[in-house]
Design brief:
Layout: H1 2-23, H2 27-30, H3 39-67, H4 75-89, H5 98-108, H6 114-122, H7 129-146, H8 201-208, E1 232-235, E2 241-243, E3 251-253, E4 261-263, E5 269-271, E6 274-281, E7 287-295, E8 302-305, H9 306-311, E9 315-319, E10 322-327, E11 330-338, E12 341-344, H10 348-355, H11 371-377, H12 383-391, H13 407-412, E13 431-437, E14 450-456, E15 462-467, H14 473-488, E16 494-497, E17 505-508, E18 511-514, H15 516-523, E19 527-530, H16 540-560, H17 563-566, H18 570-573
Parallel strand pairs: 1-8, 2-7, 13-16, 16-19
Antiparallel strand pairs: 1-12, 3-6, 4-5, 6-7, 9-10, 10-11, 11-12, 13-14, 14-15, 17-18
Helix pairs in contact: 3-4
Length: 574
Amino acid sequence: MSYDIEQKKWSLANKKCLAVVKNTIEPTILGSIPECDAVSEYLERIKSQFTGSSKTYATQLIKQLVTERYNGGGVRDHILRMSNMASKLKPMDLGITDDFLVHLVMASLPKQFDNFIVNYNISPEKWNFEKLIANCVQEEERIKESNGGSINYVKDKKKNHKSPTSKGKQSQHLPQQQQFAVEKDQCLHCKKTGHYKKDCPDFLKMIMAKKGENIITFVNESHYVGYSRSTWWIDSGATIHACNCLKAFRSTRTTQGRESSIRVANGFEEKVEAVGDLPLELANGFTLLLRDVFYVPSLQRNLISVSKLDFDGYDCRFGSGKCELWHNNACIGLAVLRDELYLLSLSENVNVVSSLTKENKKRKRTSDVSSKLWHCRLGHISRGRIERLVKNEILPPLEFSDLEQCIECIKGKFVKSIKKGAKRSAGILEIIHTDICGPFPVKSVDGYDSFITFTDDYSRYGYIYPIKERSEALDKFKIFKAEVENQHDIKIKVVRSDRGGEYYGRHTPYGQVPGPFARFLLENGIVAQYSTPGEPQQNGVAERRNRTLMAMDRKSTLANSPPCVGESYRGQSI
C-alpha cells in the first residue's frame, strides 16, 4: 500500500519536472529530442545531443583568450574581459589557473608595458589577479602622464584601394599609408615624384620644426566652400580642436605659450584668442565634450582633431564614405563624406545656437563703466536706483548714454493687472506671506526645481529657500521661524498662504484634512489664513514677489545666456 502511494508521488513529480524542462526549451529544438517517460533519461539525451557544441564553444574561447590584445580603452576593462573568458572555461573542465592567466595578460599588453613586464619577470614575487589589476592600472597612469595624458596605440585602418569613396584626409599627412600613388607629379619641395608638396614629409617636418609652432593644424579652406560656418568637420590632419564661435564654449581661459597662434595649410598664421571646453550635442542625443578647444575667429569652419579624440578614449572608424565615432563599444556619432572631408551630424539645437553668431568674428566687450551693463548685472533695476548706488559710492561713476529702453524689461513685465487695496500690518512678523513657485521644466544644476518665499507684510523683507519637493515647505518654515523670532525677539502672529496641499492638507472623500503644516501652526498658536480656491490675488504679496523674482530671472537669462543652457542655471540666478 505504501509502495503504491510513493509510486504515485514519484510519477506526479516526474511529470512536473518533465513539463518544466520542456517549457524551457525552444520549440524549434524540442522536436529534435526523442521522447521518454523519465526526466533523468530525457536530460541525458539532451546532454548527449548537444555535447559537441560545448566543445566548439570551448575552442572558440581558448582561441579568443590566447589571441586577445590590448588596444586601448582602459587596461582594467581589458583584464576583466580576459578573466571573464577564463571563467567560462571552468564549467567545461578546462579551468585556467591564476598564474597562467597572469602570464596571458602580460603577453597581451602592448610594447609600452615592456619595462613593466621585465620588472615582473625578474621579481621573485608572484602576483594574484587583484594585484595584477592594481599594478597594471598604476602603470597605465604612469605611461599616460609621461606621454602627455594618453597612450598611443597603432591601429590598423586599411582602406579598399578600389573604392573611390575611401579617400580620407589622413592620407595627406601619413605618406607611408597612402591609398594611391601619384607617379607622374613632382613635389615642388623635395623635387621627388610620387607625391605633392602638401604630402611631402620633409616639408611637414620643416614646418613643425619652426620655433613656437608646435600647435599646428593642416586645413585646406577650399574644401569648405558652400557650407555654413557653424558646421563641424572631422579632420585627421589637425592636431587641435578649433572653433570660430565663442558662445558655444562652456568655459574659457587665456592662451599660454605656444597656444597663441596656429598655422594652416596655406602657410599663414592665425591668432588664437582663447582656449576652453566645448560640449557638442550629436544627432543621437549624446553630448561630446571637446577639451582644450582653440577659439580662432578667422577659421571658416569648426574642426575636430582625430588625434585628440584618440587621446580622450574615442575611436574613429573610417569606411564606406562615412566616419563612425565610437566610445565604450557603442557608436555615438556619425560623419558623412563631403568633398573628401567628413561632416559631423549634430543636433538641430547646436546649429541654432551656432547660427546666432555666424556673422560675428569677435565678441564685443562691454565697458565696465556702462550703465547698461550694471543694469543687467543687478537684475534689471531702474535708472533711479543705479544713480543712488553711484551717489552712495557703491558703484563707480557710470556712463548713462547707453541706458536706453530695455527690451528684456518690457518682455519680463507682461503681467495681468492686480487689484490692490489691502492694508499693511502695524509691525514686523505680524503677517507672513508665503507661496511656492515651481516646478520649472528644467531642474537647476543642484537638482532644485522650485523655491519657497516668506515675506513680512510690514517691512516687505523676504526669504527665499530652494526646494526639491513641496513637502519641504514645513522644514523651510521651521528654519525661517527659528531665525526671525530669535533675531527680533517677536513671535509670528499670522501666516497667509493659498489652500495648497503643502499648506492646508490633503483631500479625502470627506473633505480636506489638515496636514503637518497646518497642525504645526495650530500647535504654536499661529493663525493660518488661507486664500479662497481660484482666487490667487488674495495672496497677492507672495504672488507678486514670485513674479518679480521670475521677471528678474527671465531678463537676466535672455540677456546673458544661450537658450540651451539658461534654464539649468535658474536656481543660481534667483
